[in-house]
Amino acid sequence: MSDQPIIVSASPHVHSDRTSQKLMYDVVIALIPAFLVSLYVFGINAMIATAAAVISCLLFEYLIQKYLMKTEVTIGDGSALITGILLAFNLPAGIPIWMIVMGSLVAIGVAKLSFGGLGFNIFNPALVGRVFLLISFPVQMTLWPTAVENNTTVVDAVTGATTLGLIKEGVQFGETMTEISAQLPSNMDMLLGITGGSLGEMSALALILGGLFLIIRKVITWHIPVTLLVTMAVLTGIFWWIDPEHYASPLIHLLSGGAILGAFFMATDLVTSPVTKKGMVVFAIGIGILTVVIRLFGSYPEGISFAILIMNAFVPLINTYFKPRRFGSKIKAKIV
Amino acid sequence: MSDSILHSVILLSLLGIVAALVLYVVSKKFYVYENPLIAEVEELLPAANCAGCGSPGCRAFAEKLVGTDDISDLFCPVGGNDVMKLVSEALGKEVAEKDPTVAVIRCQGSCEVRPKTTEYQGPKSCTISALIYSGETDCQYGCLGDGDCVAVCQFDAMYMDEATGLPVVITDKCTSCGMCVDACPRDIIEMRPKHKRDLKIFVGCLNEEKGGIAKKACSVACIGCSKCFDICPKDAIVMENNLAYIDPEYCTLCRKCVPVCPTDSIIETNFPPRKEKKVEPKVTAKVEPVKPQPNA
Amino acid sequence: MLKTFPKGGVHPPENKLTSTKTIKRLPAPKVVYVPISQHIGIPAEIIVDRKDKVEIGQVIARSGGFVSSNIHAPVAGTVTKLDMIIDTSGYKKQCIVIRTDAKNESNFEEIDFPLKKEITLQPEEIVQRISDFGIVGLGGATFPSHVKLNIKEDRKLDCLIINGVECEPYLTADHRLMLEKTKEILVGIQILMHALRVDRAIIGIENNKKDAIEAFKTLSVQEPRIQVAALKVKYPQGGEKQLVRALLNREVPKNGLPLDVGVVVHNVGTVYAIYQAIQHNRPLMERVVTVTGKKLEKPSNFWVKIGTPIKDLVEEVGGIPEGTRKIVSGGPMMGKALKSTDVPVTKGTSGILVISEDEASRGEPKNCIRCGECVSVCPMGLEPHLLMNLSEKNMFEKAAQEDIMTCIECGSCSYVCPSHRPLLDYIRFGKNITKELQSKKV
């Protein structure tokens, strides 16, 4: 016997080695490939933006918890770190640092801690920060430095539109898809990440790689990303099939913009997604529909952030209505 | 331009009139008659909504008071006799008169006198830890120390004493609503009459075990020796299950039982110091459990 | 594909340290402490007094009602006192203390009787004897066995399931018993089939006990009515409802019993006890206990007399090692942590698990991150995080609507929770209060 008294507690007396901290750091690891791509494409700017977002998120969490809420400081749990990285990934490279800091304050202060901290927030903090910046500073937020191959120096000077921006603009000016597609990057470029856009949404391949890592590590399940992407593909596919001159092909839609980043990393955020598999499917279908509607008919070229935030608001409702089937309920009388 | 202003004024006025008419009709049509006495009685009650009377709130209690003919068994513990007297005047019904009571903690098992033999891990709630086992100490009758009573007290009349690990009642704030009595899974808390100057004598132990075992678990446990029972001139002490209980109905606060207790498990509060007695006087300002004395 | 139940479940590290250790018979202890409440239901009534001499197998406490059970003297000796002794419930309970008579040979006789196959008793007599001989479910729930065998005429019953799953990590008591007493258990199954008048029995065994599956398969060849089924290793497969679902694809209705789908489930340990009772007239006086733990010198399986203090068992395996912080009666998932080693072995003690410092402490609970892991592992299709919240906020009526009462307390939710939240603690609390509220209403 040891000197300390024996412990008495309720069963179970063993625990799996999963902890919420480990889950969070798995997400961070999964984001590394995408970060490397953006580092390659945008050079030092990517580093600066990500570092600024991460540091300011951690700092705000520390300051608010310590001095405003006067609770235990939980910056070590990795959730603020993820918020920081995801916020940076949703911003264009070369955005002024003070904007990043402001976005971080909104993400951590307003979207997360004012609801009570980790686990209590209704909306994805990084997306709230992003949407706040998008609405407040629309010009800077849509000034996309174009990816110039092998350009690791300053890129602020060269700016252009994103794939989705090009399409939206073109359609508004009455151009047909054949005319627009001449200006679009090739599908291969979009897959690898040689295109314009936010920091983290560059390379679909790197993001899918990270997403697969999360699925293998059982941090997320396949339900949300697969359902979301399939919904988007089906919907855009229908429109493209009806009128290929006005609507882009599903492949372009899936590979461009924040679709992959949103599907694997933003919509799957544990806190703001439903708890049951059925609920997750419903949630993902909702996001898919809203994204396509905003992309095709809205005034913004990209709508996945809004779509996720809107569906976040429905999560409590989804959790209430899509419950797991209780064992032994509603069974056919099969007594032999 | 003036046209549009005129239009808005007319439109809004019309809207207002229509809304007023609807409100009027609805309020007449769906009018519910209510005994005005209920509101009057509710006004008299302390509005603590503590459920100490047995009704789920002061409003419900007022309805009950008005609706029942014989209210002699209904009592508002928070308002006490004063409020009940007012209620009686308002309703013209007889009410019972009760001595004011106050919650007392019948356990003195502080960390010092009742050593911990195990460590409990789990939610900090007496009810939950009581589901698993008899508690961190060897006494399965005493306070568990997780503060369920403090958590339910709506009047801030209780707090956990860090040093002893036991709850403390702030007598002035206690309204004797009885929430803590219900919350305690060990039934340690009892409502006892609040005599003049808050004088109280009670046995601060509930251990039903045989003397030796009880003493081993807690040095201030009642060992059931019956010395207090023998000395009590009013037969107010009941011996049952190796345990003494002082019946407040018969106790005259003579204090004879206190010094004879070999384990100091009888608590007296707010008494003046004793004169020329061998035993050290034990006086505490509040209901705080008496500091344990190593074997008197 | 191996059979299993479809929804939920976890797979904790098995740690079956003692699966190759033959069951050793311990000498009768000097003193036994026999609690009168070793089963679910009404405690038995003591019918002996201080200084009484008792023979081995003599009834010392009589069943207190239908859902209750007789208790027999596990040793011959003298009743020294009727005392309050702390038992696995964590509370002091009434118990009979018997000092073993060292001269009485019956305490030390070998009880390896030759196999007896012929069943001579009528079904009613079998049930009566199971009731008289104090047999309860030895899987851990200790439900009096005769209650399960008393089946009304109008109930349809077509299958007997024998639970040899032993899904709890560490424990190997049933596994060893199945290996060493295979023939006896098969006779026991036939006795039960005879008593229940069913023509079909299935033994469900998890696939990590391949030798036991093999042993039963070889021996049951002559008896086509008995099937052996290998099951996928998944906790809590040994739960009655999960086992019925896995083996027969029948789902026991909510708040129902396996009998509602025409099934009766018995544990292998119980079946062996029934064999002993019917064929050799031996009441339930001993059972197999696995004494295990990673730091123990020589973890073992023992035949133990009911009432033996746990400290005797721990002594036998080399004493409690340095740095032990927790002692559990039963397996790590559903066992009860003990307050001290003075607790006696009862009919429901399937194992003693000694946990050292590094694994004994629970993690600090953190905020729920709504990952839904508890929902996906719950074998009953409940939402543990929701039930915990409701219980914590004293919303018991809502919790009852969310089927809190169907929780089988398997602990899978607490096991997986990445935030280390005490889900089951609160659910158990909620169940208790709900039960109280419901009994008040009636």
Explain how this protein is built.
The complex is a heterotrimer of chains A (336), B (296) and C (442). Helices cover 59% and strands 2% of the residues of chain A. Chain A contains 15 helices and 3 strands. The N and C termini of chain A lie far apart (55 Å). Helix content of chain B is 31%, strand content 12%. In chain B, the strands form 4 sheets. In chain B, strands 1-5 form a two-stranded antiparallel sheet. Chain B has a two-stranded antiparallel ribbon with strand order 3-4. Chain B has a two-stranded antiparallel sheet with strand order 6-9. Helices cover 28% and strands 19% of the residues of chain C. In chain C, helix 1 crosses helix 4 and helix 4 crosses helix 7. The mean pLDDT of chain C is 91. Classes of the chains: A mainly alpha (336), B alpha+beta (296), C alpha/beta (442). Chains B and C meet through helix 5 of B and strand 16 and helix 14 of C.
How would you summarize the topology of this molecule?
The complex is a heterotrimer of chains A (336), B (296) and C (442).
Chain A: E1 6-9, H1 20-42, H2 44-69, H3 79-89, H4 97-112, H5 125-136, H6 138-141, E2 144-145, E3 159-160, H7 163-172, H8 177-181, H9 187-192, H10 204-216, H11 223-242, H12 250-255, H13 259-266, H14 277-297, H15 304-321
Antiparallel strand pairs in A: 2-3
Helix pairs in contact in A: 1-2, 1-3, 1-10, 2-3, 2-4, 3-4, 3-5, 4-5, 5-15, 10-13, 11-13, 11-14, 14-15
Chain B: H1 2-29, H2 36-44, H3 58-67, H4 80-91, E1 101-105, E2 118-121, H5 126-132, H6 148-152, E3 158-160, E4 167-169, H7 179-183, E5 189-193, E6 200-203, H8 211-217, H9 227-231, E7 237-240, E8 243-246, H10 257-260, E9 266-269
Antiparallel strand pairs in B: 1-5, 3-4, 6-9, 7-8
Chain C: E1 24-25, E2 31-35, E3 45-46, E4 53-54, E5 59-62, E6 71-72, E7 77-86, E8 92-100, H1 123-132, H2 145-149, E9 159-164, H3 173-180, H4 182-196, E10 201-206, H5 210-219, E11 226-231, H6 240-248, E12 263-267, H7 268-280, E13 286-292, E14 300-305, H8 310-316, E15 324-329, E16 336-337, E17 351-356, H9 357-360, H10 373-377, H11 384-392, H12 396-401, H13 412-416, H14 423-441
Parallel strand pairs in C: 1-14, 9-10, 9-12, 10-11, 13-17
Antiparallel strand pairs in C: 2-8, 3-5, 4-7, 5-6, 7-8, 13-14, 15-16, 15-17
Helix pairs in contact in C: 1-4, 3-5, 4-7, 11-14
